[in-house]
Write a structure and sequence with these properties.
Length: 179
Amino acid sequence: MFLTEAGSLEELMANLLEWLPPTCLDAATNTREETNDFHGSEADVSLDDMDLSATQPQPARNQGDSAFSKKKKKISDASDFSTSFNDAAALLAENIRTVGLEISKSIASEVVMQQKSEMTIQESALKLYPTLCEVEGLTEDEHYRALSKIPDHPTQMLIFFSLPSAVRLEWVRRFLADH
């Protein structure tokens, strides 16, 4: 569409001014004022005096299916998508923080339980020698072999201490035969 088909230059400029955001208008005004100051005079240029033959008219703003409204809808859709994406990212970040805290608590709990278990095993290992000395019927060789092998099997050591003294001799002999 040519300029003559769009109407007068004033109508075209009025349409263009509707399309431009205020920041562009401010920049254009500042540029014009700076140019006028540079030349030392106020320029009063009429739109009719300007050569706008190289310009192409923009579609009217009120056309429902115009490129502008499509572009505006795309920008709106992109903005909605961006907002949704940011909301989802924030929710994901919060969930990751929550899971991280729960994992940290769980790990801390496991560490405490592991430390307690190790302390129990160490205490049991310290009691192993005197307890083996109390088991009647163990040879000196069985006594030292049991003393060197039972601590390598913490669960078996706990089982040994949980047994009544009457069955410990047989348990130690079977343990030594298997290990």
